[in-house]
Amino acid sequence: MSGQRLGIMGGTFDPIHLGHLVTAEQARADLGLDEVVFLPAGQPWQKDDDTTSAEHRYLMTVLATAANPAFSVSRVEVDRDGPTYTVQTLRELRAQLPDGELYFITGADAILNILTWKDADECLELATFVAATRPGYDLARLEAEGIRAEVCVLDVPALAISSTDVRERFAAGRAVRYLIPREVEEFARKHGLYGTDGNGLALGGVV
Ligand code: NAP
User: Fold this and answer.
1) Cα(151)–Cα(104) distance, rounded to whole angstroms?
2) How far is the CA of 54 from the centre of ligand 1 (A)?
């Protein structure tokens, strides 16, 4: 489709939470995007090995986004062998949408490290980068990295929610309701992700 304004929501989504969904919806509205494609990273090469399997993260992302007609989920990075390089995905999308406008949306802290990504300059040419910030985020950090002028900033109060906190809550047997979609919570418990057992009970904690 020519002239399409496509949002690409890049992340590990381990797990996807309401902050991610609010970010995508806010980006869609503020930037006038036609669609937002969620892009779970297959093998995030700058992360530890204890990341949840790509298939589980992909399925949780599908469950979380299914009801929104403007959202979809791409398997492209999940299905690609080897470490996940954003530049490869952006090249493929650019080839599919030669006249489209690509907006790569992700966390500001991830974008802070963009100069360490593979072919960083090409990434910045292929798409407009949108840095989603948590409350109190210090924009001087982007300036210090010399990339403030290269990126759009999206202030998202709901990003007070974080995947790290959600994983810690699961492991400690604390409530995650209203932080992640109910379907994602049930899926994570069913598959024993994040230190929960298959019966929906946290291991070693009281809900
Ligand atoms: P990360 O370092 O785990 O995340 C950094 C921060 O950004 C965290 O606070 C995280 O919060 C937040 N965040 C991540 N994705 C977000 C999103 N879509 N919306 C709002 N906040 C988000 O980052 P990552 O998940 O590994 O990587 C983010 C994206 O950058 C992915 O698409 C990844 O493939 C790409 N990346 C590419 C390269 C490369 O090409 N060489 C290298 C590194 C990263 P939560 O934990 O709550 O999400």
Assistant:
1) 10
2) 14
